[in-house]
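Annex B. Sample input.
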Amino acid sequence: MCYEITFVIVDLMSAPPAPAGPATVTPGTKQTTPASPPTGPTGPAVRPALDWRLRFGALSLIWGFSFLLIKVGTEGYAPFQVTLGRLLSGTAVLAVAMLVKRERLPRTARTWGHLAVAAFFLNALPFSLFAYAELTIPSTLAGICNATSPLWGMALSLVALSEDRPTRRRVAGLGLGFLGVLTVLGAWQGFSGLDFSGTAMALLASLSYPIGWIYVRRTLAGSGSSALSLTGSQLFLGTVQLAVVTPLFTSAPDGFPLWPTLAVVALGALGTGLAVLLQYGLVTEVGPTTAQMVTYFIPVIATAAGVAVLGEQLSWNTPVGALVVLAGAALTQSRPRAA
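Annex B, continued. Sample output.
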């Protein structure tokens, strides 16, 4: 759920400058960073205790279960409250990490202004939309809608990023992906039994991510701050935005029910805090191209969790359509082989 932030900002900081801005992992503009750990003035960095494949699997599980945690959280709290608690917990984790690593906050008002916009499109808006969506749609459907982000991103990048050029393979992937969306939604049945408002909010949340990607790419290149500093500051600004909005649209909760409270804390501390740190390490160690493959496991795990834990019903078109969506998303991010 928070992978969009890390892929964009970490790759922004690790890629070399260019006139159009460093390459990000916005669909069609991926750039692979060196797979070896970075070196510093004191020699090679210490290799992590856990193999990257184990961390990759843990990250897939954490983000895959995020949609289940949102559903449980909304059983005890209003959607805005779920998002606020999520951002607050995630920010606390990153704040501790920044203190341990002695990271400095961004210094310029320009950077803070751009981070505020990025926080809205990459945190406050999509997190809130998913929380509202899961009031009326299953967590399985929300997870699959989240997988359409690369499709939206590819479509938007062709318009907003002049260096992106359509290829037959990527255009085919875009068409295939949206065919998968129609399969998931049961278009041939006239979308019978589908909650339009909830599904629309989930799809809008997925669209919000690539808008944020493109904005970050155009505005935060060469800011001089580290990826961890930018990400932590962005989450902090998202927390401030929700802290302002939430009291205007919700009333204080009557109590703090155990399971919804634990779900919200886990959603933030694990899915938005720890997961960002895991992803930061993966991108640094194996590069964004390999690390971003985690996104293809998220809807599979979200679907399995929703069915096994929450007892959500699953018709044949949901998993079939999800596989088509993932195949289309993979094609949109494919690159021609180098000569």
